[in-house]
Every structure is written in structure tokens, then in C-alpha cells.
């Protein structure tokens, strides 16, 4: 299944293991640490985002892969 969006509750894999997204911030540029909180984003825009995860960690979009 090819997912078009990432939203709260989407399962992702990071260096901390599998987790669900609890918050998404869309940033102006790749590597920025803060941005606008959004409900969902297109998968192709994930590298411009920062994700808070339900395991207590956060990750840049470049550090996560949708499961």
C-alpha cells in the first residue's frame, strides 16, 4: 500500500524503533527544528517536518520511514 499522507497515529520506524506520530510540525527548510503544527502532510514533504512520537522521542523527517 502506498500511503499519500502522514497524520497523527501513523506508524513510523526510526532509530528508536516503531512508534506512532503524535504531533507534526511543517518546517520552512530541511533540518529546521520548529515549524507550524499541522494535522497531516503529504509523504513527499516528510523531510521538511519534525515528528513527535508516542515513545517520548522526536525525529526529523529524514530520520523516519512510514511503516
Fill in the keyword field for this structure.
67 residues; 0% helix; mainly beta; 6-stranded antiparallel β-sheet; 8 strands; globular; two-stranded antiparallel sheet
Describe the protein in words.
- It is a single chain.
- This protein is mainly beta and 67 residues long.
- It is globular and about 25 Å long.
- It has one domain.
- A hairpin with a 2-residue loop joins strand 2 and strand 3 (17-26).
- The strands form 2 sheets. Strands 2, 3, 4, 6, 7 and 8 form a 6-stranded antiparallel beta sheet that branches.
- The chain has strands spanning 5-7, 11-14, 17-26, 36-38, 40-42, 49-53, 58-60, 65-66.
Helix content: under 10%
Shape summary: globular
Domain count: the total is 1
Low-confidence stretches: none
In short:
The protein contains no helices and eight strands. The chain has 67 residues and is mainly beta. The protein has one domain (5-66).
How are the SSEs ordered, and which strands pair?
Layout: E1 5-7, E2 11-14, E3 17-26, E4 36-38, E5 40-42, E6 49-53, E7 58-60, E8 65-66
Amino acid at each position: 500500500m502506498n500511503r499519500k499522507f502522514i497524520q497523527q497515529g501513523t506508524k513510523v520506524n526510526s532509530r528508536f524503533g516503531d512508534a506512532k506520530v503524535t504531533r507534526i510540525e511543517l518546517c520552512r527548510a530541511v533540518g529546521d527544528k520548529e515549524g507550524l503544527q499541522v494535522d497531516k502532510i503529504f509523504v513527499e514533504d516528510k523531510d521538511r517536518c519534525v515528528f513527535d512520537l508516542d515513545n517520548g522521542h522526536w525525529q526529523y523527517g529524514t530520520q523516519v520511514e512510514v511503516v
